[in-house]
Amino acid sequence: MVDPHASTSVPHRLRSLILKVVDWVAVGVDHGKPIRVSLLVLALVVVVVSSVDQATELFLIAMWADPSSTRYLFLLATAAVAGLAVWYTTHNAYRLIYPRWPALQDPRAAPLRQWIPRVLGAVVPLLVLFGYAMALRSSPHATCITTEQCHRRDLRATGLLIEAAAMIVFFIGRQWLLKARLSAAGMPRADAEPRVESITVLGTTPLSVFLAVLMLNVLITALVVMQPRQFDGMGALAVLLITGSFFCMSGGFLCMLADRRGVPLISLLMLTAMILHALHLNDNHRVRQYPSMSTHQRPAAPPVENRPDFDAYARAWLSSRCIPQHACPVIVASTEGGGLRSAAWTAMVLSQFTALIDQSTPPHGGEPLFERYLFAGSGVSGGSLGLATYTIALQAAPHTGAAAQTRSERILNHDFLAPVMANAWFVDFTQRWLPGALFDDRGRALTRAWEQAAQEQGVTSMAEPFAALYEHADGSLSTDVPALFFNSTTVGQGWRLIEDPFRPFADSPWTTAYDGSRWLDPRVPLSEAVLNSARFTYLSPAGTLQTAIAADNPSRTPATLQLVDGGYFENSGTTTLREIMQRLRTIAAKQGQPLRFVVLHISNDPSLHDFVDAHNAELPLPVYSAACPRAPSPTERSSYGDATAPIVALLDTRDARGEFARAELLSSLRIDSANPGNGDVLWHMRLCPGNYPLPLGWTISPPVFDEMHRQLQQNYPLNTMATWLNQQLRSATQP
Length: 735
What we know:
Layout: H1 6-32, H2 36-51, H3 55-65, H4 69-95, H5 110-138, H6 147-184, H7 204-226, H8 236-260, H9 265-278, H10 310-321, E1 328-335, H11 339-356, H12 369-373, E2 374-380, H13 382-393, H14 401-412, H15 417-431, H16 442-455, E3 483-490, E4 496-499, E5 513-515, H17 526-533, E6 543-546, E7 560-565, H18 574-590, E8 595-602, E9 623-625, H19 645-668, E10 681-685, H20 702-715, H21 718-732
Parallel strand pairs: 1-2, 1-8, 2-3, 4-5, 8-10, 9-10
Antiparallel strand pairs: 3-4, 3-7, 6-7
Helix pairs in contact: 2-5, 2-8, 3-5, 4-5, 4-6, 4-8, 5-6, 7-8, 7-15, 8-15, 11-13, 11-14, 11-20, 13-14, 13-17, 15-16, 18-19
């Protein structure tokens, strides 16, 4: 028999199912509202872990490369603290009754309120493990190199799994223990932790914990203001976990207070930050014009101009090194951006050449010949840090390439990311909600870290005025140090801003660029000049460059520029180097002095397209570049949608400008293919994909240095290069 109601029962059931799904979705959404701070923190972690390349090295260091058991214990401890913070905040948030979210009172959702805090708390150490798995997946060689590394990796991964399991056991066991104690006291088990209508009724313990955490948050913020390197030695991942803990606890507690009264706290904070930003009332990102200036102060009037003149420097350099009417070898270098990877590779390449050039009878008081004939360097971002580190490392005794290489690696082998992250989340984040610039920013934390790392190696130049490198003790001009040029990008105009230690040019050699000396104080610290070139996206904030009325020119009006990383314009540094070379050719031509340029272009991106098609290691003249192994690459998309096409084009144009600039540099050289010894020379010192991932960021591990050493020794005929270069330099010292 056919049921006459069958035709209507199916739509009725479907409608009932849809209503139930909608009802449960509403319940789920309401259950996410009181714990949105914890959910936002965890969501941000997932995004960083899964899509930010710079995070790869952090996980590889923590789980694989770092031999320090202390830092791993810090990682375990902070992961546990962060998990407990997430659990405790969400657990207490669900104990409150919120009149405007009735679904939170639904008895059917009691298991959600019980298990969501447990799962979110236990997921924190699992996210660290997930980040490590993602890092291995993106690494070209995802296998450990030594047995010790294999054991270390396995033990550390196991430790995180055990920690996650222990947290689940604790969360469940704690509830059972609490109910057992109530039963023993003759009280109903359902009242173990009753829901309450006021935060003051939560109990003495929760209130004490939340208030203590809030006070500790303020205290740590004050400590980071006074000393940004509070968390050095713990590792950047541990710092991020600590800041996440405070976000969850302090932010969750404040949201609980606001939610009970229907106040949209997060929306109000965002609106406040936007208003303060629009009115420029909380800008603490001012470029430091002199060592004692803070990033939240306006600059004072600069002193009378005392920097050397570039043309005078160039003429003095040529007259002290070149034989009239003989081709004078001039070494110049351009070095690309790429965070600490670029800095380490740049310093390593330059130090290695300095060490290899024969110094058996060093002239001129023992100054290495390579450094003596290194006329100028143009750097972008991390490449600027590498140039500066190499230069100051040679200023300390002993003045040798080998000592400079060791000193440079010790300076750069630091976790510069940890102080930046500590300042960003404790200080800069707080500053967004406060009117008036009150605290030094995360850029200052980074320059302090560079300065202190150099001071540990007995080098103080990083904290001193840039121009001081070019002045003898008696105030006379010094040409012992190569002319350094650091490239930054201006936000409003998209031009280069070129920072150097010289006074402003009377006739600027730069095209589509600002002469930084017209804006920068003569006392600007070397570390700040490097930072302006290395204002890495979001990690280092855009800097507000303000000038005061000059003491020697009262009619000058104050001006303001905003600076970001030099790689926004083009990441190679070759545009500026080509213009420096043109200026030097003009000066030398007036003296009748022929020049022979030896150009070192130092790049560090393993995926870079080579612009030098010459790989003969037996004869690396007139041009040479290492031949990187061709790795299979995924199929590139050739078309995009209406929304993404403009964005992709803007991003790709930056790389294209770099390729164009490199090609222009190569075409500007006077290369004699028939007789390479008579013309200019270009060596492209590049990094290739290797045995260990080469990360982009402000922290790298010892295996990265080992991989760079391996590539430098195996990919380049260094002895052949050094022998030829040594002959050219020694011939220039003999009439």
